[in-house]
Amino acid sequence: MRTATSVFLLSLALGAVAATGGVAAQESRLPDIGSSAGSILSPAQQAEYGAMTLSQLRNYGYTLEDPLMGAWLQSMGQRLGASSDKPTQSFTFFMMGDRQINAFATLGGYIGVNAGLVLAADSEDEVAAVVAHEIAHVTQEHVLRGVEQAQRDSVPILLAMLGAIAIAQSAGGSSSDDATMAALMSAQGLMAQRQIDYTRSNEAEADRVGIRTLSRGGYDPEAMAGFFEQLQSVVRTSDSRESMPDYLRTHPVTTTRISEARDRARQLAEAARPFVPASRASDNPMLPASLRIATTTSHGPGGDFPWARERLRVLSANSPAQAVREYEQLSRHKPLDDAQRYGLALAHYQDGDPRRAARELEALLGAHPGQYWLELALAQAEARAGDTEAADARFEALVARMPNNRAVALTYAATLNERNTRAAGQRAQALLRPLLASAGDDPLFQRTFARTSEIAGDPVRAGEAYAEAAFLNGRAEQALVQLNTLRKRDDLDYYARARIDARIAAITPVVLELRRQGIRDPDLDRR
């Protein structure tokens, strides 16, 4: 399946080149993807390109959609974004399932982080260091300058951004499908990669600004140099360029770069010490000079990071059985720590053994009372094992303690959906409805709400949510077809019809622009 979609991604990129060659620019909701104009893109256009990139990555199965991982990454990312040189810049952070060590930034403040990067880190500070570096590429407009260069060189932005990112995610991957995709796209990749590679001055500036952002956000500024040292050790053990992590191909790590990062972190610490012994002065130019921010301790290996890393180890494995074997191999070297035991329990749960998972999670919860990642996993395992009463009591207690927490609501709703009863659907709908206004860009939420509404006996809301999920997953044409079909129902009230008409009006120009570029939904074309 992935091979087929990989081939289609290549044809999509090449099709964009062919389709835009002789077509005059038209006024549309999306900017002209084939334009070679050197003018600076507006913030709205940048956001549209970023959203397009994310939707296509979702469409081809590269993103990892999980409410807990998404909340963890967004929390860290938004904290850093608010501490950046442009705190008003909008950022969207998303997780990729690939185990290659990589992260990237694209237009509109869209930043992707690979599972492999988190698995390679020893602390949240180290992950934050890389995210802060990518944020700096956005705030210093390195990404935008790269796109302008691509325009001047007549390389379509869609190819430069989507094609290069697809290559970065597939190169050196563990599956043969990824290798096939890399071979198919290698020629285009060489050209596109040159358009988004950062210069040495860009990298130095992103390091310098990123370390400042890291420090402002309350993370350890030394973490950037420390993680670079880890990456440098990977370079030494790589037997070829092909086996080198993708991040190191676009962000080369040298001894000079490490020493400069360490010197910059030391300078920040020394500059802050004389003025505020028990707090860190803010050097953010957007904030008053007199403002003093209390010191936040380094996140280190504590907090949610250990649970997040092990959850990601399970979710990024090729199969639950492989994840179980991975933990068995880890345990041969030394006993598993509590976070790793949590990961093993998740792997057993996903591998069809919820009772064993529940036993392991219950023991862990005794050692970590109130840890809601453990409580959510235990409630899921209890429900899957048939102990519905205990599961519901645990879920309801979590909802009472953390009202409107998206991860809690989504996990509980998904568990209720498995029961496929009207009562379960109605309870799930009640959980999710308060979050609708803030979940418009979350395809996992939309899919869950669609199924919830379906079994609750609300086909109109279900249809709207299924269409929204299709749109967010890069299937704009499918979304439009679904909405037009839904609009023909004779039981729509005034408000439902108004919502559907508004979405049709918003999505139609997107579909028309994609068609103008020669991009059609392959599933619809086969009908």
Describe this structure in words.
It is globular and about 70 Å long. Helices cover 65% and strands 4% of the residues. The chain has 527 residues and is mostly helical. α2 crosses α7, α5 crosses α10 and α19 crosses α21. The strands form 2 sheets. Strands 1-3-2 form a 3-stranded mixed beta sheet, sandwiched between helices. Strands 4-5 form a two-stranded antiparallel ribbon. A hairpin with a 3-residue loop joins β2 and β3. The N terminus is likely disordered. It folds into 3 domains: 267 residues, no CATH class; 86 residues, Serine Threonine Protein Phosphatase 5, Tetratricopeptide repeat; 111 residues.
Features:
mainly alpha; 65% helix; Serine Threonine Protein Phosphatase 5, Tetratricopeptide repeat; 527 residues; 3-stranded mixed β-sheet; disordered N terminus
Structural class: mainly alpha
What would you report as the Rg, rounded to the nearest angstrom? 24 Å
- Numbering strands along the chain, what is their spatial order in the largest sheet? 1-3-2
Global morphology: globular
Helices and strands, in order, run as HHHEEEHHHHHHHHHEEHHHHHHHHHHHHH
What portion of residues is helical?
55-70%
Supply the number of helical segments.
Answer: 25
- The overall strand count is 5
Poorly predicted sequence stretches spanning 5 or more consecutive residues: 1-38, 154-161, 163-196, 274-283, 289-298
Return the average pLDDT rounded to an integer.
Answer: 81
Strand content: under 5%
* First-to-last CA distance: 19 Å
In total, the number of domains comes to 3
Largest sheet descriptor: 3 strands, mixed
